[in-house]
Design brief:
The complex is a heterodimer of chains A (114) and B (115). Chain A contains no helices and 11 strands. Chain A has 114 residues and is mainly β. With 115 residues, chain B is mostly beta strands. The chains are: A mainly beta (114), B mainly beta (115).
């Protein structure tokens, strides 16, 4: 079975500063990896995903993530935080041949300070 | 842009009552899911549904839960006799294809409060 660990349930960054959200996964087979964002009172929206190919993937709103197999990591970054980035971010994994079922991490809530 | 819609957005019910949460998935999608998130906890998989039957369910999805696609557009989650611990945000999601690279599209959730 696969699992996801997100380090830090809360992260506070200053506007304009680097955003770094950590995600480590466990999977017995090469996984597919996702980052979802949840804005207040809204559903889960896909930020980006890694399936195969290039290990650095770019998503919406200036976010990107790098798949590092050796570290079993898929950390999410954004060079310069904006106030509108305040939200909860979820890392998730799915396994080929298991349909699209996602296993989520615990989430990281991002606070952006002016 | 097509979206998954869920109703109600918030429901308050008494323990032991039946609750039905409704979802309208994206119209050409084939796979449907329910997830839940208890306050402060992870988003957890409940059940997936394809071709008018459950394709996978978690250990959370016990006999008090059921899903149905009654009319080709709605996808419902029924909780037969609610318990306090069923209080959570319930998310419906749909997916366009069998390929596991497919993105899940989520609704905005239905918050269930059991008193």
């Amino acid at each position: 079975a696969q699992s996801v660990t997100q380090l830090g349930s809360h992260v506070s960054v200053s506007e304009g500063a680097l955003v770094l959200l950590r995600c480590n996964y466990s999977s017995s087979v090469p996984p597919y990896l996702f980052w979802y964002v949840q804005y207040p009172n809204q559903g889960l929206q896909l930020l980006l995903k890694y399936t195969t190919g290039a290990t650095l993937v770019k998503g919406i709103n200036g976010f990107e993530a790098e798949f590092k197999k050796s570290e079993t990591s898929f950390h999410l970054t954004k060079p310069s935080a904006h106030m509108s980035d305040a939200a909860e971010y979820f890392c998730a994994v799915s396994v080929p041949a298991a349909g699209n079922k996602l296993t989520f991490g615990g989430g990281t809530r991002v606070l952006v300070k002016p | 842009e097509p979206e998954v819609t869920q109703t109600p957005s918030h429901q308050v019910t008494q323990m032991g009552q039946e609750v039905i949460l409704r979802c309208v998935p994206i119209s050409n999608h084939l796979y449907f899911y329910w997830y839940r998130q208890i306050l402060g906890q992870k988003v957890e998989f409940l059940v997936s549904f394809y071709n008018n039957e459950i394709s996978e369910k978690s250990e959370i999805f016990d006999d008090q839960f059921s899903v149905e696609r009654p009319d080709g557009s709605n996808f419902t989650l029924k909780i037969r006799s609610t318990k306090l611990e069923d209080s959570a945000m319930y998310f419906c999601a749909s997916s366009g294809g069998r390929a596991p690279t497919g993105e899940l599209f989520f609704g905005e959730g239905s918050r269930l409060t059991v008193l």
